[in-house]
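Narrative of activities, Objective 1.

The group set out to show that a structural description can be obtained from nothing but a protein's sequence at a throughput compatible with the screening campaign. Below is one input-output pair from the validation batch, recorded exactly as produced.
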Amino acid sequence: ACANAPMVQLNDDYYECLTPKTMVELLEACKEGKPPAMGKWGSLPMNGQVSCEGPLGKTSLWEVPEPPKVNVERFKDGAVDPASVKAHMSY
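Output recorded for this entry:
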């Protein structure tokens, strides 16, 4: 999922964090040949934020999560059965 949805791509530029009102404003500005300015790394979210963090900053992953445990025994023969990959990956 996109953290800055809803968004739209117009040509090479992305406009994020849109509302019905800012979408109309964006289209009107483009129609007038005055699209919003790009930031240092490209398009900026239309709500004024600078990154995909919300107004409260980081609200999750305060700590580095533990990686999942891997059953190394299932690789002991060094062979992988392609037909079983999805089952092992919980697909």
